[in-house]
């Protein structure tokens, strides 16, 4: 309706505008027509005046010419006195005619002379040979002549040709007539054009009125009628609405300050007769039932003075004496200059509403009372209510929520103050939320808002007392009557206890009880996650590091389980410390740790791992003792190596294996060839298990020659594996496998047993004290019962203990097991067995242990011997080692002599024994025995000249059966 009315008004406005334009145009056209007509008329009239003048002159000419003729004729008969008088008159007539002639024929301003105005006049004035002008000229000349001569009047009269004069008269007559006619015609023409102009103006006026104003005004009337109708409808509707809403209004304009104009509806509301449209203000004052009957008028006054809208509620006494409760909203109306022209009060009957309000308040009070039980139940279940009007950002919590969040409800205003303006309530809420709680809640709220479906989200929030609560928040959407979202609301439940229990369960399920680190299960979950992330985004890299402690078993066995546990805890702490919070450290079990390094490059990972290994190799104080740790690490990069969790674990394991192989305290990155190497190792280790049972292991013997005599004094037993398919396999390849797969115990036992058995045979064959040296690995010392083994082998074979030498490398003293090893060595020594320190110089530079460990021999590693003949530096090192050994009362054995020149260098050092390919390679027993002959036959050749005497002496000693070595060994 409003829309339509507005359209009509617009149309009416357009029509009005068009009418105005056309009206102006018509007035312009008429004005132009009248001005043109008037101008033409004015022109004609002014010319007519001129024409009249011309006609007069023409007439005068005629008259003058006649007079001149008559006067001339009179001259003939006049006497002398009369002649003079006539001549005067004639002269005057002549002068006037001359001036008239001049006027007609000449004209100032170069305009056309009257004599030539029309063609007819021109013809009269310019007839060929007898033109009027000339004739008048002539006439005048004659007259002039008469006047000038004035001698003989006779002659003058003679000169006047009367016939000519008559024709001149006729022509002048004609000319005057023409002038008259011409003037009349022009006047007529001007009249006509004026009439025409007026006619045109009238026609235009008529056309405009008939063809333009008529239809347009008809249309305008239609539109106006329509608008009026619509306006009426609107006003009816408004009035009806007012009646339905029990509303009405009054207007108080500034020009009638003491009166109110009241609407029909208001009159009805006040039950006043409809005729009373204007009421004195005092009437309203009397009706108002507030304390001083002044509420309305004072509010009206404020509005009138300030222009600010006012609202008030007051009780009114109606005309019939009944009462109604009303609300009045007063607003001011302004003119274009912003000055108030009136104020309007919209009055509403709120009697029913007030009643309802009162009823609701009473009901709420009742409900509040009855719901205290429910509230108690809520509190028991820690449930509270919250709501958030859409768009307001203000979170409204009920009293329970305050209790639940451990905020003091009585300090609500203080909190508000702290929060600042309402718009920052969201920010404050964000501060209360822990972790990603806020974003999750926002996300959930958004879903509920979008879908209208109720939702639930679990959050963690900081309580008023600083503790953290787990909350289950239910979110619902309330809509207004039109279906528009109005409020988000819901409940808030404290589920901290349940969550704590769940967390404890999780702790059990996902954390290592000893170290508190993540356990294997959690580690695998995180690893799966990292792999999934890498599959989605190839730039999401992580590294999987497996760390294995190098000597945990020794610590555990040597210092006890408690110490072992403490040690593991400390290692866990150190790893976590180095790894930092962004990376995950887990204990997978035993002494196996694992780390997920997030988002690091291989270089960064390498640095971090290096740092971790360094941190755990720093000695750990456990109780009284100090445990030295250290570990090896294997690293796999995700996604470059793999994106599968299980594969990542396997690869890290391979890398760890390879790290351990290359020595302790190392780390290595996985490389694809590790896999094949491991495969080979695994199959070898499988085969090795069967090798002992299948008799594939064989002991070979390498001769050891006396440095003094060049004669064979013993053999080192070196194991060989005759593999079914691969043939001979070097101990360098299978011994490490045996060590790592616990097969070393069996192989070691076999080696000792076989060595002792063969030693007896060789002693018999060579008829001398031939010693056998057996290699025993560190792993054997730690894991197997070597003492038992040796005792049994000696007993079974019947070999004299002093003919058995056990070779140990420095690696047996690594870590914390020194005391245990020392004790074991001492016990072996007590059995009469010899001990040699093998591969001296390759391992640890700390020589402290040489002091108190009961070694008989020191075997210098081949790496020192090789090149000793050409490098003075090496030679000097060797000299140093030999000097040290001698100082400690040990024999020196040089290993790996291959050439004669190496031999002579070694001989110059006066080593006790020499071993190397120069004398013989490790061979099966029979071959080794048969090689002895050749060695002995060469013995003389490489004995140094200055030692000859000594050799003889020694030979003598040997023959008596008291060998130097044995003497020393027995001492
Ligand atoms: P090792 O105890 O240092 O043994 C000496 C190694 O040097 C032997 O290698 C031997 O063949 C080699 N060799 C001897 N003279 C020369 C020489 O002049 N030049 C060169 N280039 N090499 C020479 P093999 O037999 O391969 O044994 C390697 C290692 O395996 C041994 O080193 C030893 O540590 C270990 N091994 C051998 N048999 C056994 C065993 O029965 N038990 C244990 N636990 N380890 C063993
Ligand atoms: Ca050896
Ligand atoms: Ca050696």
Compact description:
This protein has 971 residues and is an alpha+beta fold. The strands form five sheets. Strands 19-20-22-23-24-25-26-27 form an eight-stranded mixed β-barrel, surrounded by five helices. The protein has a six-stranded antiparallel β-sheet with strand order 3-2-1-6-5-4, with helices on both faces.
Provide structural commentary.
The protein is built from 34 helices and 27 strands. The strands form five sheets. The protein has an eight-stranded mixed β-barrel, surrounded by five helices. Strands 3-2-1-6-5-4 form a six-stranded antiparallel β-sheet, with helices on both faces. Helix 18 packs antiparallel against helix 19 (about 560-580) and helix 21 packs across helix 22. It is of the alpha+beta class and about 950 residues long. The two termini are about 130 Å apart. Mean pLDDT is about 80; it is low at about 420-425, about 945-950 and about 955-970. The protein is about 55% helix and about 20% strand. The chain is elongated, with a radius of gyration of 71 Å. Strand 20 and strand 21 form a beta hairpin. It binds ligand C2E and calcium ion (2 copies). Ligand C2E binds next to strand 20, helix 23, helix 24 and strand 24.
Runs in which pLDDT lies below 50 for 5 or more consecutive residues are: 420-425, 947-951, 956-971
Q: How many beta strands in the DSSP annotation? A: 27
Query: Helical percent range?
Result: 55-70%
> Structural class, from helix and strand content?
alpha+beta
Number of helices: 34
Query: What amount of the residues lies in strands?
Result: 15-25%
Ligand identities: ligand C2E, calcium ion
Based on CA atoms alone, the radius of gyration comes out at: 71 Å
Major sheet: arrangement of strands: 19-20-22-23-24-25-26-27
Mean pLDDT: 82
Major beta sheet, specifics?
A: 8 strands, mixed, barrel
| Dominant shape | elongated
How far apart lie the N and C ends?
A: 132 Å
């Amino acid at each position: 309706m409003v829309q339509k009315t507005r359209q009509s008004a617009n149309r009416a406005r357009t029509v009005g505008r068009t009418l105005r334009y056309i009206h102006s145009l018509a007035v312009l056209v008429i004005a132009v027509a009248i001005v043109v007509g008037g101008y033409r008329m004015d022109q004609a009239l002014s010319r007519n005046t001129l024409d009249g003048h011309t006609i007069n002159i023409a007439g005068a000419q005629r008259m003058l010419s006649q007079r001149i003729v008559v006067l001339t004729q009179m001259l003939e008969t006049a006497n002398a006195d009369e002649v003079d008088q006539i001549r005067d008159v004639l002269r005057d007539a002549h002068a006037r005619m001359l001036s008239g002639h001049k006027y007609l024929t000449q004209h100032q301003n170069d305009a056309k002379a009257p004599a030539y105005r029309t063609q007819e006049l021109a013809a009269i004035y310019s007839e060929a040979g007898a033109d009027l002008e000339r004739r008048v000229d002539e006439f005048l000349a004659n007259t002039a002549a008469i006047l000038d001569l004035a001698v003989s009047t006779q002659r003058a009269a003679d000169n006047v040709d009367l016939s000519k004069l008559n024709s001149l008269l006729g022509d002048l007559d004609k000319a005057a007539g023409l002038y008259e006619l011409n003037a009349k015609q022009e006047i007529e023409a001007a009249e006509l054009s004026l009439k025409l102009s007026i006619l045109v103006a009238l026609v235009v006026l008529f056309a405009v009125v008939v063809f333009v104003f008529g239809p347009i005004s008809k249309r305008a009337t239609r539109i106006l009628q329509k608008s009026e109708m619509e306006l009426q409808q609107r006003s009816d509707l408004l009035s009806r609405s007012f009646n339905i809403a029990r509303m009405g209004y009054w207007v108080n304009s500034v020009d009638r300050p003491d009166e109110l104009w009241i609407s029909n509806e208001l009159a009805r509301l006040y039950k006043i007769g409809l005729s009373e449209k204007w009421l004195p203000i005092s009437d309203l004052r009397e009706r108002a039932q507030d304390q001083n009957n002044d509420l309305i008028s004072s509010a009206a006054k404020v509005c009138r003075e300030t222009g600010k809208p006012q609202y008030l509620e007051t009780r009114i006494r109606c005309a019939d004496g009944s009462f109604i409760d009303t609300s009045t909203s007063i607003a001011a109306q302004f003119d274009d200059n912003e000055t108030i022209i009136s104020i309007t009060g919209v009055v509403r009957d709120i009697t029913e509403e007030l009643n309802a309000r009162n009823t609701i308040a009473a009901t709420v009070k009742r409900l509040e009372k009855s719901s205290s039980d429910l509230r108690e139940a809520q509190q028991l279940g820690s449930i509270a209510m919250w709501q958030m009007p859409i768009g307001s950002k203000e979170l409204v919590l009920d009293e329970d929520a305050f209790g639940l969040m451990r905020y003091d409800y009585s300090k609500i205003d203080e909190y508000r103050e702290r929060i600042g303006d309402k718009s920052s309530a969201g920010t404050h809420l964000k501060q209360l939320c822990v972790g990603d709680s806020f974003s999750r809640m926002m996300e959930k709220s958004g879903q509920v808002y979008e879908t209208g479906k109720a939702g639930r989200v679990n959050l963690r929030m900081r309580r008023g007392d600083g503790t953290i609560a787990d909350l289950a928040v239910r979110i619902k959407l309330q809509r207004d009557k039109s279906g528009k979202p109005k409020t988000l609301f819901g409940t808030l439940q404290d589920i901290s206890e349940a969550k704590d229990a769940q967390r404890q369960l999780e702790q059990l399920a996902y954390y290592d009880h000893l170290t508190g680190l993540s356990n294997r299960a959690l580690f695998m979950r995180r690893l799966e996650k990292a792999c999934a992330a890498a599959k989605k985004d190839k730039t999401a890299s992580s590294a999987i590091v497996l760390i294995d402690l190098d000597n945990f078993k020794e610590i555990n066995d040597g210092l006890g389980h408690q110490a072992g546990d403490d040690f593991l805890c400390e290692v866990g702490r150190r790893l976590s410390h180095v790894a930092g919070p962004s990376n995950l450290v887990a204990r997978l079990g035993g002494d196996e740790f694992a780390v997920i390094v997030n988002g690091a490059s291989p270089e960064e990972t390498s640095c971090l791992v290096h740092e971790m290994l360094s941190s755990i190799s720093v000695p750990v104080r456990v109780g009284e003792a100090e445990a030295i740790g250290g570990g090896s690490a294997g690293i796999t990069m995700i996604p470059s190596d793999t994106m599968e969790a299980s594969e990542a674990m396997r690869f890290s394991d391979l890398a760890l294996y390879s790290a351990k192989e290359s020595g302790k305290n190392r780390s290595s990155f996985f490389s694809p060839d590790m896999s094949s190497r491991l495969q080979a190792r695994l199959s070898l280790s499988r085969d090795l298990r069967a090798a002992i049972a299948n008799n594939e292991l064989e002991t070979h013997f390498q001769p050891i020659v006396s440095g003094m005599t060049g004669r064979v004094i013993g053999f080192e037993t070196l194991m060989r594996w005759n593999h079914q398919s691969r043939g001979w396999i070097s101990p360098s390849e299978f011994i490490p496998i045996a060590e790592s797969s616990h097969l070393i115990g069996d192989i070691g036992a076999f080696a000792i047993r076989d060595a002792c058995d063969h030693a007896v045979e060789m002693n018999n064959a060579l008829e001398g004290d031939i010693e056998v040296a057996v290699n025993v690995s560190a792993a054997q010392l730690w894991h197997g019962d070597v003492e038992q083994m040796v005792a049994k082998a000696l007993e079974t074979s019947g070999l004299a203990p002093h003919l058995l030498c056990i070779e140990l490398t420095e690696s047996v003293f690594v870590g914390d097991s020194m005391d245990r090893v020392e004790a074991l060595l001492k016990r072996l020594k007590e059995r009469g067995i010899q001990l040699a320190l093998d591969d001296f110089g390759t391992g640890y530079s700390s020589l402290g242990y040489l002091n108190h460990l009961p070694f008989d021999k020191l075997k210098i590693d081949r790496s020192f011997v090789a090149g000793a003949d050409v490098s003075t530096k090496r030679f000097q090192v060797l000299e140093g080692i030999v000097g040290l050994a001698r100082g400690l009362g040990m024999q020196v054995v040089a290993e790996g002599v291959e050439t004669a020149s190496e031999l002579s260098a070694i001989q110059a050092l006066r080593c006790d024994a020499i071993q190397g390919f120069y004398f013989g390679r490790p061979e099966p027993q029979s071959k080794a025995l048969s090689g002895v002959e050749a060695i002995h036959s060469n013995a003389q050749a490489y004995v140094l000249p200055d030692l000859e005497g000594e050799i003889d002496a020694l030979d003598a000693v040997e023959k008596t059966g008291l060998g130097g070595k044995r003497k020393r060994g027995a001492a």
